[in-house]
């Protein structure tokens, strides 16, 4: 991996701001979709696809590419947007999000969309195929690495822990899971007003360490810190790594941040205008109105 | 004179032997097991080719997900687990990670049907065909004997799509002549007959064949089809049987709902072919526990039981609401037979 220079970091941050704006534009245009989760994993996806992953947009099926799985598939508009920005398909296609017969359906489909390594959508299923890919790399004698972004909500699914158990058993140090730890799920645990709000999963570090994983905690919105965490994972030997990325659901738009309400809410025209202004991307709004 | 059939091995033994032989020649062939190396007869495989066997432990959902990921890297993956768990516990992983994602995993359901009969309903797989038939992009194969098993595994190894194969654990009779050819999606006509034809699959083909032999002794002309591939379904074989026989009986080690019998019935209806018809299988009731032999006997999946069913059907004593003459003048198939399922 190339060193992340201050100049490069600035470029990535600009890409991330653009990606956030395009996510909101696409969801607004579709009149449906998730917002909070995509914004929470945007910076990590940008860092992965623009700096970390060994991929080639012109050869999405290149057999030596690094693999990526978005296990929290409902955040796929963020992945589509990053893939489009990276050149896998035209940016205009993002406006077909959720439309009939589009390649941009509500959850990623590896048979349809260039750059998608694994379909997802049913929560808790993504780590197992990631484990299979990491095993495949080892059996094939290939050096590609596999990355899986997990949601904290889907960590309640049992299959995640089946896979965690076996990945450690096989000492798969070519497998990195990334927990998008934004602390909010769609409804969450019931609690009385004013009581402690329990996150979807408490003490994930303790749990994953107990399963035999190396655990690194990082700020999931600080791309320099996140990249350093991935580098550490890459040099870890003998065990898989979980990066706990502390994130904010709805990150980047003040009135969406940390709000349950924005898990899957469509911004109004007024909210869209305000959000793009905050992101410094109002110029994208003008462009999109033509096709709106 | 009654034909005699020699006894072979359990189909699962043939699966294990064939996979080992193939894997010795092909390093990309990987077997994934879920603490079922013993029951899947894969112990020898694991000892001979330790790098080509991945043990996942008792976690079927993970087993299928891992197999899909492995297959996506180009490996030829045979995921082996008891059929009852493989197609129920991990049905969602089969649907999403294998079929929908088009990762060509070869799912091998062992001790299928009521092979684990005495262990109770938790261990019966009488739902697997119905469940998988409702999922697009997974072919389904139920070999009847060692010959069909050997060829089904060979075919699966190079099959470009997801596929599910289902096997039992009891030694099976050799049912085929040496000149028989096996082709996925193409039913094998074991014998033809103008009075009645049994369309059977898997371990119910043998009792159907023995029933046909005994009926022939009584002057009833009897056909038997081994419908080893449930998907893609050999519509033509069904229509041919229905238009050359006076009655049809389907036989399966599965619920009568949603499996072979349902598929044959739907095929006939859509083709506009009407004739006396009976589904034999496990009825919609709390299934009894017992050995596979005992359960088959209980539900009439025996040479005697099937012969009786055939005679009753031909004699119209099952309250068939079609006049006897209707069967003799069964309508011709539609000009455009329905597309294969």
Keywords:
heterodimer, A: 292 residues, Rossmann fold, 9 helices, 10% strand, B: 341 residues, 7-stranded mixed beta sheet, 13 helices, 37% helix
Description of the structure:
- The complex is a heterodimer of chains A (292) and B (341).
- Chain A is α/β, with parallel strands linked by helices and 292 residues long.
- Chain A is 40% helix and 10% strand.
- Chain A contains nine helices and five strands; from the N terminus they run ααβααβαβαβαβαα.
- Chain A has a five-stranded parallel β-sheet with strand order 1-2-3-5-4, sandwiched between helices.
- The longest helix of chain A is centred in the N-terminal third of the chain and has 25 residues, at 6-30.
- Chain B is an alpha/beta fold and 341 residues long.
- Chain B is built from 13 helices and 14 strands.
- In chain B, the strands form three sheets. Chain B has a seven-stranded mixed β-sheet with strand order 3-2-4-5-7-6-12, sandwiched between helices. In chain B, strands 9-11-10-13-14 form a five-stranded mixed β-sheet, with helices on both faces.
- The radius of gyration of chain B is 20 Å and the shape is globular.
- The two termini of chain B are 39 Å apart.
- Classes of the chains: A alpha/beta (292), B alpha/beta (341).
- At the A-B interface, α4 and α5 of A face α3 and α5 of B.
């Amino acid at each position: 991996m190339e060193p992340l220079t201050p100049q490069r970091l600035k470029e990535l941050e600009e890409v991330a701001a653009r990606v956030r704006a395009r996510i909101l534009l696409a969801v607004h245009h579709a009149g449906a979709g998730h917002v909070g989760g995509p914004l929470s994993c945007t910076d990590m996806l940008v860092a992965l696809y623009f700096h970390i992953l060994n991929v080639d947009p012109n050869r999405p099926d290149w057999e030596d590419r690094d693999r990526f799985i978005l296990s929290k598939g409902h955040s796929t508009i963020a992945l589509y947007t990053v893939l489009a920005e990276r050149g896998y398909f035209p940016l205009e296609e993002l406006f077909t999000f959720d439309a009939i017969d589009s390649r941009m359906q509500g959850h990623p489909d590896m048979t349809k969309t260039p750059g998608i390594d694994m379909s997802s959508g049913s929560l808790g299923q993504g780590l197992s195929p990631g484990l299979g890919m990491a095993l495949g790399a080892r059996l094939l004698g290939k050096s590609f690495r596999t990355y899986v972004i997990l949601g904290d909500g889907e960590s309640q699914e049992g299959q995640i822990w089946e896979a965690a158990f076996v990945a450690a058993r096989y000492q798969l140090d070519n497998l990195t899971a990334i927990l998008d730890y934004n602390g909010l799920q769609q409804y969450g645990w019931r609690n009385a007003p004013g009581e402690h709000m329990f996150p979807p999963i408490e003490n994930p570090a303790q749990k994953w360490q107990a399963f035999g994983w190396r655990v690194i905690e990082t700020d999931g919105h600080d791309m320099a810190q996140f990249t350093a965490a991935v580098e550490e994972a890459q040099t870890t030997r003998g065990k898989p790594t979980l990066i706990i990325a502390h994130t904010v659901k709805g990150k980047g738009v003040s009135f969406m941040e940390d709000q349950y309400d924005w898990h899957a809410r469509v911004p109004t025209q007024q909210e869209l205008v305000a959000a793009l202004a905050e992101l410094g991307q109002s110029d994208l709004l003008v462009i999109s109105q033509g096709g709106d | 004179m009654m034909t005699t059939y020699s006894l072979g091995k359990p189909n699962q033994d043939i699966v294990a032997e064939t996979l080992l032989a193939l894997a010795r020649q092909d390093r990309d062939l990987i077997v994934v097991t879920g603490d079922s190396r013993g029951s899947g007869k894969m112990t020898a495989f694991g000892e001979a080719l330790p790098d080509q066997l991945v043990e996942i432990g008792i976690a079927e959902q993970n087993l299928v997900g891992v197999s899909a990921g492995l297959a996506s890297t180009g490996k030829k993956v045979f995921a082996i687990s008891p059929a009852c768990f493989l197609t129920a516990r991990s049905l969602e992983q089969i649907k999403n990670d294998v079929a929908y994602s088009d990762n060509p995993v070869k799912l091998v359901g062992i001790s299928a049907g009521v092979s684990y009969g005495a262990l109770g309903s938790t261990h019966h797989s009488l739902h697997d065909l119905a469940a998988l038939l409702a999922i697009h992009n997974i072919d389904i194969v139920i070999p009847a004997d060692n010959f069909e098993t050997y060829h089904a595994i060979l075919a699966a190894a190079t099959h470009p799509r997801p596929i599910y194969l289902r096997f039992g654990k009891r030694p099976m009779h050799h049912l085929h002549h040496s000149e028989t050819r096996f082709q996925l999606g193409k039913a094998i006509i074991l014998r033809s007959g103008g009075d009645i034809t049994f369309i059977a699959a898997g371990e119910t083909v043998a009792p159907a064949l023995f029933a046909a032999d005994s009926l022939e002794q009584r002057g009833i002309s009897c056909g038997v089809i081994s419908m080893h591939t449930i998907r893609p379904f050999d519509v033509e074989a069904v229509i041919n049987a229905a238009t050359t026989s006076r009655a049809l009986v389907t036989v399966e080690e599965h619920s009568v709902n949603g499996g072979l019998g349902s598929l044959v019935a739907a095929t006939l209806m859509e083709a506009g072919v009407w004739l006396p018809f009976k589904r034999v299988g496990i009825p919609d009731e709390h299934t009894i526990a017992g050995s596979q032999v005992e359960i088959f006997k209980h539900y009439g999946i025996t040479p005697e039981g099937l012969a009786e069913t055939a005679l009753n059907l031909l004699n119209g004593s099952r309250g068939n609401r079609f006049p006897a003459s209707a069967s003799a003048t069964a309508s011709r198939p539609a000009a455009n037979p329905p597309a294969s399922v």
